[in-house]
Design a protein that fits this description.
The chain is globular and about 55 Å long. The longest helix has 21 residues. A 7-stranded parallel β-sheet has the order 3-2-1-4-5-6-11, sandwiched between helices. A two-stranded parallel sheet has the order 7-10. Strands 8-13 form a two-stranded parallel ribbon. It contains 11 helices and 13 strands. Helix 7 packs across helix 11 and helix 9 crosses helix 11. It starts with 8 loop residues before the first strand and ends with a helix. The mean pLDDT is 95. The chain has a domain of 203 residues: 3-Layer(aba) Sandwich (Rossmann fold). It is 41% helix and 16% strand. By secondary structure, the protein is of the alpha/beta class.
Length: 319
């Protein structure tokens, strides 16, 4: 069956970044007329795939909104965001300006120009908070889990989901809000508000020491970027709207992560521990059964395989 947006214009915001560039790659292969919008605050121009049209713009700008009138996008993959949790805590107005008002700028432009579907990069861990022992026995968190974001970043993602529901109910705009676990893989930026996988991989390959915050038994649901891309495609392809977890349903501790990467880099580094980060979430793991049932999506890459692939990519970059 042909991809429903084959041959049609699709906009990928944040498409010069880590996850967005992989999504753009896949949509080019699906035969879409791919446009990438990125202000390059975190993205890299070389990540934009051949065959895509690049627009260096801020999502809050009138110029970004004008793209919808010019190109009549059929679908929007929205990954552009202020993603630094620490910055969101230090400057909530800036976080809301980018993540809420910037998104609304695009949604309004889309509503006025025939946009049909939005695939939105949301968050699992930052929206749910710690697993509730009264939900699923304290195990993997389903989409019905209480949403108790602990940061302005998580709040803006939740607010954006509510706006999507409003635009769906009021204007008929279809959407898939994808609540990610901790995404890792090739092209992840090891600088700034980066994922721990990228930081560990680069530092261990360079022979630099690693300090694990606290005892290292805090867990996350690490999901490989290739599986996330497949979830985006499934979210666009299925004729349905809703919220979907995108993870593995498996908890991996920071200590386990370090040991895997230490082995794959052949660094032989010591496992050093420092003070715990105040207020750090201790557990996060996503129940993906609803996503499997509705979107027909299932994660295929286990953590060990994904980490080895990621380390190999970082090794090539170091070379």
């Amino acid at each position: 069956m042909a991809f429903p947006f084959e041959g049609r214009p699709v906009l990928v915001t944040g498409g010069a970044g880590f996850i967005g560039s992989h999504v753009a790659d896949r949509l080019v292969r699906e035969g879409c007329d791919v446009h990438v919008l990125d202000d390059l605050s975190g993205g890299v121009p070389s990540n934009v795939p051949d065959g895509a049209t690049f627009h260096e713009l801020d999502i809050r700008s009138q110029e970004a909104a004008d793209l919808f009138a010019t190109h009549k996008f059929a679908a929007l993959c929205h990954l552009a965001a202020q993603m630094d949790v620490r910055r969101s805590v230090a400057d909530p107005p800036f976080d809301a300006d980018v993540n809420v008002l910037g998104f609304l700028n695009l949604l309004e432009a889309g509503r006025e120009n025939g946009l049909e579907k939005v695939a939105f990069a949301s968050t699992g861990g930052a929206i749910y908070g710690e697993p509730d022992p009264d939900v699923n026995g304290g195990g993997p968190q389903p989409e019905s889990h209480p949403t108790l974001p602990m940061s302005p970043y998580g709040i803006t993602k939740l607010v954006s989901e509510h706006y999507l529901r409003f635009y769906h109910q009021t204007h008929g705009l279809e959407y898939a809000a994808l609540r990610f676990g901790n995404v890792y893989g090739p092209r992840q930026n090891p600088h700034g508000e980066a994922g721990v996988v990228a930081i560990f991989a680069q530092r261990l390959l360079r022979g630099e020491p690693i300090t694990i915050n606290g005892p290292g038994e805090q867990t996350r649901d690490y999901v490989f970027v290739g599986d996330v891309v497949k979830a985006f495609v499934a979210g666009l392809a299925r004729d349905t709207s809703g919220i979907y977890n995108v993870g593995t349903g498996i908890e991996t501790s920071v200590n386990q992560l370090f040991r895997h990467i230490n082995e794959f880099t052949e660094a032989g580094a010591d496992e050093n521990h420092g003070p715990a980060k105040p207020g750090e979430q201790q557990r996060s793991v996503l129940d993906v059964r609803h996503t499997k049932d509705v979107l027909g999506w299932t994660p295929e890459i286990d953590v060990a395989t994904g980490l080895r692939t990621t380390v190999d990519w970082f090794r090539e970059q170091e070379a």
